[in-house]
Amino acid sequence: MVRKLKPEHWKLDPDEHDYPAALAYLSLILPQEAAQELTSRLRAAEVQHFKAKDLLRASRLPLLAPDNFHVAADLRKVKRGQALSPVLLVRGQLDRGVALTVADGYHRICASYALDENADLPCHLVDYQPTAP
Question: What is the model's pTM?
Answer without folding.
Answer: 0.90
